[in-house]
Amino acid sequence: MFRILEARSLAPDVKYFRIEAPSIARARKAGQFVILRVAGDGERIPLTIADGDASGGWIAVIVQGIGKTTKHLNTLEAGEFMHDVAGPLGMPSHIRDFGTAVAIGGGVGTAIAYPTAVALKRAGNYVISIVGGRSRDYVIMEPALRDISDEVYPCTDDGSYGFHGFVTQKLQGLIDEGRVLDLVLAIGPIPMMRAVADVTRPFGIKTIVSLNPIMVDGTGMCGGCRVSVGGATRFACVDGPEFDAHEVDFDLMERRNKAYVGFERNRLEEFLEQVQT
After folding, report:
1. Hey, which of 102, 196, 215, 223 has its CA 20 to 30 A from 166?
2. 2-89 belongs to which homologous superfamily?
């Protein structure tokens, strides 16, 4: 059992959890994730380690309540327990001094981009962070990113805060200004990551995305997280989750992620009925 040390809301249906997990906190690196279960008979869900402290013995994850398990998870509060948390899993981010690095987070993807942005800054990069959300309420972790970034640009679809437009439009604007960008890290919904790749491809800008396919065990045994990268089958849990954006088959990934939409909808409806009764 893993005790929740802190639980707080960051945005509508988005919650921050700080979890007591000493061994994971000591071993984790930027870009890695954990797989957790709320209950012993529950679904396994992968979540990127958003932060951690080896001396304090804790890690942090940020959860968006979309399906049955994530909504259940977001009902937990400090002092309660998660049944198990396994990790760290996956390959760490490749960190070095690239020069100017742009970290782009769309929605909860910002929480996944944050630890890599921290590591890139520590490696000597000039870090530009672009944070997107539907409206101001959905722009998360901006203060934390301002602490470690040289420039931060919040973007909202509705223009309620920061730049009025998509993160891709802000990125294109930087390129149009003649800014030399040596690395772009984009994490968020599949359409957003695909769009970022389309923006950077003509300019040959190295672009990395963190993929979130269906995942069960996190060890490569189930094969559920297979993705096509450069025409080859890769497993996001052990070969990734980060890959060259210009080589990812986003169409295939999107189709695979929709395979269980009906089942997931039914499970969510059952859960919401239980909560209401």
Report:
1. 215
2. Translation factors (2.40.30.10)
- Given the DSSP bridges, would you call strands 126-133 and 151-156 parallel, antiparallel or unpaired? parallel
The pLDDT profile of the chain, 277 residues, written as one tens digit per residue, is: 899 999 999 888 889 999 999 999 999 999 999 998 888 887 888 888 989 999 999 999 999 888 888 888 899 999 999 999 988 999 999 999 999 999 999 888 888 899 999 999 999 999 999 999 999 999 988 999 999 999 999 999 999 999 999 999 999 999 999 999 999 999 998 999 999 999 999 999 999 999 887 777 666 677 777 889 999 999 888 888 999 999 999 888 888 776 656 545 655 555 565 666 6
pTM for the whole structure: 0.86
DSSP secondary structure letters along the chain: -EEEEEEEEEETTEEEEEEE-HHHHHH--TT-EEEEESSTTSPPEEEE--EEETTTTEEEEEEE--SHHHHHHTT--TT-EESEEEEEESPPP-----SEEEEEEETTHHHHHHHHHHHHHHTT-EEEEEEEESSGGG--SHHHHHHH-SEEEEEETTSSSSEES-HHHHHHHHHHTT----EEEEESSHHHHHHHHHHHGGGT--EEEE-----SSSSSSS-TTEEEETTEEEEHHHH-SEEEGGGB-HHHHHHHHTTTHHHHHHHHHHHHHHHH-
CATH code matching the domain that covers 100-257, chosen among 3.10.129.10, 1.10.150.120, 3.40.50.720, 3.40.50.80: 3.40.50.80
